[in-house]
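Protein folds are increasingly written down as discrete tokens. With that in mind, we are printing a sequence and the tokens encoding its fold.
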Amino acid sequence: MRQWATREVLAPIADSVLHPSPWRIRALGACTLVGHPLAYLIWVFWLPQPYENLFLRVLMALCGAALLAIGAATRSPPGRAAAIGLLALFWLTLPWFFTWMYFCNSGSPVWLASMAAMLLVYYQLTDWRLATVGTSAGMLVAWLAFANFGPEVRPVAPGVEAVNGVVLACCWFMGIVLGVSTSNLRREQLNSTLDTMGIVAHELRTPLATMQLIGEALRSEAPEHGGENRERLEQLAERLNNLVRNMNHQIDMQMTNARLMRLAANAERLSAADLVQRAIANYPFRSSRERQCVVVRVYSDFHFLGSQKLFSQVIDNLTKNALRSLAAAFSASRPGDLLIEIGAQGPRGRIVFTDNGVGMEPELQARIFQPFFSTDRGTGHGLGLAFCQRVIQAAQGTIRVKSARHHGAVFTVELPVA
């Protein structure tokens, strides 16, 4: 029971993938910014209500402006600090404010309907676990605040209080039911997709093993032939073995990426320089020229806590993306076209990938860390950078990108020094 509660209730609360999408955040921000001043005008001058407060309306409108103005709030998935900030703003503008106004207006029909709408909106806005915790806490704090600091207003009549309680309980129950079904469906679809990718990648091992056997057979046959035939057979065997090695490496990457929602929690003390140099040494470059274009510079090594296997995958993903961008630039690669720099300053260390590839537009930069979004629509599955972000965030680090079309890209990984 404890394991189920941790996996299904507590863990998703900290899972940034389940937080609101950027479009929902922007929509709520716009509605909050415009809606509160408009509601104040309506409830004061057109359809007067027992209680209105200009200060609270302005404060809520400013919260909506913050949702629109703070760039970190619309990243997907948000970082830990941004996620906490978003939850606080949603909590303040929805369950706390609406419950406070409900009590201040003596449970009037207007605010009964507003509370019912708030409950349904809150559960559709974010994950049901977050909404349940936020609603419970918001209503309780608003009730305590009203009981101790609220204005002198007519209390909610006992009969009205019971009727309103039944209506709100029904809305709350339906919000939980709809939220649970939507959340479970979303998680099942994601896990099913990831499992299918892992199975397909695993099944590719069989034909690759056959190709490797053919390569070994060609290599063993080569000495029996002389001159150009022997050289050609050896070259074919070498190319086949390199192809198999490359494909096996790609399969390992895809199978690791497919564990996006189930990352290992083990942490080791890792050397950034050693990690990068080993990953580059083991990377299956397609040619010697491709290998020569990668330059690693270590200004100052640093250590951090993380998983050796997962962070090696991060380096592989970032290297693969940079090399793909360079290949699409239609220019001969030169040493330093992919520059990987390692350094530390104070409590933070950096691993910076700078490439001279095709780059990307600003609107794409805001989405590249979303699961299943890919700039390479031909072969990309959109999990590589999402995987990188989750691994880095699990180590209390950050990853960001700076790029422009036809001017390459710079990916900066920052990690706390251990």
